[in-house]
Prior knowledge:
It is a single chain. The protein is mainly alpha-helical and 706 residues long. It is built from 30 helices and 11 strands. Helix 8 (253-256) links the parallel strand 9 and strand 10 (280-284). The radius of gyration is 35 Å and the shape is elongated.
Amino acid sequence: MPEAGDNPxxxxxxxxVFCLKNLxxxxxxxxxxxxxxxxxDVFLPSEICDKLVNVYMDLVYTDSxxxxxxxxxxxxxxxxxxxxxxxxxxxxVRDKDVEAIKKQVGKLSVTRGLKSCILGLYATLLKSDFxxxxxxxxxxxxxxxxxxxxxxxxxxxxLDLSGVYLPRxxxxxxxxxxxxxxxxxxxxxxxELISTVVQMxxxxxxxxxxxxxxxxxxxxTRKILTSIVQSLGNLVSLDISGHIMLDxxxxxxxxxxxxxxxxxxxxxxxxxxxxxxxxxxFLGLYNTTLCNVTHIPAYKxxxxxxxxxxxxxxxxxxxxxxxxxHRAINQLFDIARIQHCSQLLRALQLVIAALKCHKYDKxxxxxxxxxxxxxxxxxxxxxxxxxLRRQVIEVVLNGMEQYQEVTVQRNCCLTLCNFSIPExxxxxxxxxxxxxxxxxxxxxxxxxxxxxxxxxxxxLVCQVDNDHKEAVGKMGFVKTMLNLIQKKLQDRMCDQVxxxxxxxxxxxxxxxxxxxxxxxxxxxxDLFLDCLQExxxxxxxxxxxxxxxxxxxxxxxxxxxxxxxQFITVxxxxxxxxxxxxxxxxxxxxxxxxxxxDGPDVWSVEDxxxxxxxxxxxxAIQSWDVTSRRNxxxxxxxxxxxxxxxGISPVSQHWATWALFNLVSVYxxxxxxxxxKEGGVALLEKVLELDSSQPETKDMWNYxxx
Length: 706
């Protein structure tokens, strides 16, 4: 069963997204001048219209693959076929969009940045005698006369004046018998304003919080807080975050420590709240000392005392107060990093929501991506569903697309390292590769990001099918890796970036001729020789380079480009290498085995001679311990098996037989089924029948059969 809160998307949600991504195939048609039009037989109730518009806004804002549709809001201009009741409009809405929906918006919730549009809509509503009950003027510029703006609206029941300058607050008293919700976040409080507020006896939600205490002349006192509680008997939600209490309004410490935490008002550790008739549903105490007491009469409290309060703060402030959400996410980061996050599912969902909602907010992206790294590590992995982990991946990729800033990129790359690669990234395979290759552009110099990104690139092309490798190759993968190698050569530095780059090239060229061709076309062989000369003692580097060249040598059409005196000499010398056990010698012999398989007629090299090279190959193979454990991984034996039933190059046949014997002997459970599946047993039996097969080769198979 899925965890609570982590259930699959509802059918309503799935259908809404499908329709929005396929408007002309579902509810719309193309009219004159390519205009998007609602089908005449479509009539949509308010629940569906609200869902369509609000999900549309989310997709435009958070999904990089979703394209905004010109004329979308015009679909909702006729209240006879569509009904809108509550919208969450955002900055990307244009004047003409607001104009289209102004005939029917009954409840309006508006984020900052849209005020010019909304004032025009507001004026239109006044002229049409529209009954406006909810109004959000948060962030309104000081030049606007708020008193004059609001007076014609006697029916207001909900008012948000966040950050608005109120020089004469007494005018708010005209709604004292109507207002149920009043938000005065970051409003400069005064005695006059407080005395006006406490007259509003019908208030159920009051927010007089601040972002911080700086630049605030007003001081919250025990007397003021008591007055609020006593006068506003219907309050269920109160936010006083960000205020400094001028005098002590908490019980003595010994009394606070008595008994188990209680939400009963009579036991409140905060004196003014002992006057409450019942516990509050919500109490904002973020960035105050009051959140640290034991007995708080509220079901949900924001603060920084513990994980529950921090998560409540992220939940409460993400949408409209990113500056506070940023701080709370940073505190969650510390909890996940230093302590233990006990509400993992909720924490992940809240951070994901914050990153989606504020993908253009650098501070949120930095702290959110850092928190995700710790919330998705091994410690928490078993508690996460596939769906949830995919949501994390999507929001991380959004951050990588939007921000080239070093910290965000590093956090996002590190978070991706917490996933099984390539399996868990397969659903975003093309996108993640493009983003990583962009990160690895030569202009980027941050070593830590470069190292992580190359590691991810390498993991992404390991153990995937050839179609994936070919697609990534066409994105410029091979050229990007070679550019990194070239830069490291110039710096005379063989580090993890250098080694990972060669390893990535080894993986992406495996059974992929087009990528092998790209490697040769981009002067890969010159870089191979330069690296070999510059770093003669780097065993891991040599192994990776020779593994890559083994892939190139498997492509018959490309082998002539390896058949030069210089390359053959280098490969022959590497047969004597003891680097990384037998791996470098083994891979060098594999390269030569494929070249020898083409026969003496194509051998165009005078020095060294073909027979001399073959003798060195025999000597090398005879020197290897057939029980050696290997640092190599085969997905298929096909390139090896093709060297078996032939007489043109016995040494190639011997290398192939030794390779199979070693692998099935040391790793029988992994490689015996693969050998049988690919018809290897029958081919080995043919080796025994061939007169050209050498006794050493036959003896190995006979020994293996016994």
